[in-house]
TrEMBL record:
GO terms for molecular function: DNA-binding transcription factor activity; sequence-specific DNA binding. The lineage of its organism: Bacteria, Pseudomonadati, Bacteroidota, Cytophagia, Cytophagales. It comes from Lunatimonas lonarensis. Transmembrane segments: none annotated. Residues 206-304 form the HTH araC/xylS-type domain. It comes from the Bacteria. Keywords: DNA-binding, Transcription, Transcription regulation. This is Transcriptional regulator, AraC family.
Amino acid sequence: MPVQFISGVPWRSDRDLRTLVENRTTYTLEECELNIFETHQQAEAINLQFGDLVLTTMLKGKKVMHLFDKPGFDYLPGESVIVPPNEVMKIDFPEAQQDNPTQCIALSISPEMIKNTFTLLNERLPKKELTQEWGLDFSYFHLINTKDLSEIINRFIRIGVKERSKEKDLIASFALKELLIRLTQTQAREMLELTYQSMASSNPVAHVVAFIKENIREQVNLDMLAEKACMSKAHFSRTFKAELGLAPMEFVLKERLKLARQFLQFGEYQVQEVCYLAGFNSPTYFIRAFKQEYGTTPKNFIQPG
């Protein structure tokens, strides 16, 4: 999966820093609070806690995060972590220094906003295939940012930091609702990666995902996938997109690109060979799609610089 970075947030000037460890800048809105943290020196076992649910996203540098009494994990740009209310985050900064600081956002969201958003979704939309109801699952708290999730986080940062209009809180409210939707879809994709095989016999979306992964080098089309799900094309497309935030054929493309990237990392295949091994018919299309997804051509991926 490509790393989806969040656009940069302005750094505090040296004279504005109150501390070199987790210097905090806060933007308060009606239904949330946006915090930007900077650390400019190595540190260990720094505790951080919020009274509301918080979405944290790494912007620059590296942290080691300790949560839920589990072993620490590396926390890097392109990743997000969802933390429930009152949970203590214990954080290490093994590489932070003046010329290599860390930067992270923490967006705390009011319980009323979360409850109202998911209540509305559960009332207005059909039941979800994977989880039955819209909501967040703290079993999947460490996420790789998808493109959609990164885009809405970027937009929310712009609203929090730069928006000056009277409508700021209303605009933020709409963005928060979309953010919560994208979070549930990102979690669903993470969950499917781990459980699609065990769920394939009982869940149509998982069954289709298993079929795609097992037949990724074959020619797959929407008619075939809808038939596997025992749904009409229109119903299947809507259901799949609502669950995972991707159209079915977008998912197929991303799976092929992931496979192609793995082959390229082996270093044993030429670009044209990888194209066909990953299920593509056209080297030109493969190269274009790879560059759009990963920001570089397959050739440069093998031989950077």
